[in-house]
Specification:
The chain has twelve helices and eleven strands. It is 30% helix and 13% strand.
């Protein structure tokens, strides 16, 4: 994947300037575009910090760095000039993203219909639709076959820093989707006591959270990866690809486990798993307790306190789910429970 100047090929610009999970849920749509446009340069407008993940999909020729606070639409795109042959809005369904792409004067724009941009034909947006299905349906409406189940990415060539570990990821980009740290620690402690090697992963700025989970769980030195900065994507993907199981909230690492086919237990709170969860598969277990609220978004996904539905999930429930999903995949040959981390692994923060 290049960040260099445009080639002489016709270009297809795809807007998806969001996070890791958003990128991975768009993989089926990107695969469909790659198949449909074999002679085009496929350019993805996405945050520069996702360069490693974008390259790992093997689907994009060039990354156009673009981002905005939260889930907003970028103000502008640093497009190098010339009209894109095609622009595809995989970012949202309103005038901000539509107009951003229209300003580049693409010969054709694929997007959902919206009354604020009546000149753009397209299918009707559905609020209660899984992200993978949403973008595949958009392409299908325009005559581009896309399979929402075609979501895998290649396994990394990088060796895992902790082969066979259970990966516990306590962080998320909003408190509403963060299961309490003491419960993550209790899960990690029980898994460690049962003979499993446990690694705690952390994104940038989550060093204190990950360190507290590791200490409360009594994990050995070297059990935390990341925290001061994000774990480099090739190393993170290698860790997840070689893991026995990933225990995580509704965040990007859950989608990475799905894309790599790694067993996972995913904890949901304010948003229903049928909108953002893994596909039906014995390797993946979702836990969600919506109560009597039948809506798919009963809480605020960006709230400042843990969602009440997330708090209904118990430690024992998570442990049972972990045991269940690990029983579906045999332990890799040559690894023993409780193997120690490599000598150069970083210490808990």
């Amino acid at each position: 994947m290049s960040r260099g100047p445009r080639t002489a090929r016709p270009s297809a610009l795809v807007l998806r300037a969001l996070g890791l999970g958003d990128l991975l849920t768009a993989v089926p749509a990107l695969k469909a575009l790659r198949r449909h446009l074999p002679g085009h340069e496929l350019v993805l407008a996405a945050p520069g910090r996702l360069a490693g993940a974008v390259a790992a999909t093997g689907l994009v020729d060039r990354l156009l760095p673009a981002e905005a606070p939260g889930r907003a639409v970028p103000v502008a795109l640093a497009w190098p000039g010339g009209r894109p042959d095609l622009a595809v809005d995989l970012h949202g369904n309103g005038p901000p993203s539509h107009l951003l792409l229209q300003r580049l004067r693409p010969r054709r724009l694929l997007a959902y219909a919206h009354p604020g941009t009546p000149g753009i034909p397209g299918p009707v947006w559905r609020e209660d639709e899984h992200e993978r299905e949403r973008w595949c349906r958009l392409l299908a409406w325009y005559g581009i076959p896309a399979d929402p189940a075609d979501l895998s990415i290649p396994a990394p060539a990088t060796p895992s820093p902790a082969p066979g570990a259970v990966v516990v990821h306590p962080g998320a980009d909003a408190a509403a989707r963060c299961w309490p740290r003491e419960r993550f620690a209790a899960v990690a402690r029980e898994l460690r006591a049962a003979g499993h090697r446990v690694v705690v992963t952390a994104g940038a700025g989550e060093d204190a959270l990950a360190g507290q989970v590791a200490r409360r769980a009594g994990l050995p030195r070297g059990s935390v990866l990341g925290g001061t900065a994000d774990v480099p994507f090739d190393r993170l993907a290698a860790l997840v690809a070689g893991a026995r199981c990933v225990v995580v909230g509704d965040t990007g690492l859950a989608h990475l486990a799905t894309a790599l086919g790694t067993p996972s237990v995913v904890l949901f709170g304010p948003v229903a798993p049928r909108l953002w969860g893994p596909p039906p598969d014995p390797r993946h277990r979702v836990l969600w307790h919506p109560g009597t609220d039948p809506s798919t978004r009963p809480g605020d996904a960006h709230g400042r306190t843990p969602d009440e539905r997330l708090l209904r999930i118990t430690v024992e429930e998570v442990l049972t789910a972990v045991r269940d999903v690990m029983s579906t995949v045999p332990r890799p040959v040559g690894r023993a429970p409780g193997d120690h981390p490599p000598a150069d692994a970083p210490a808990p923060h």
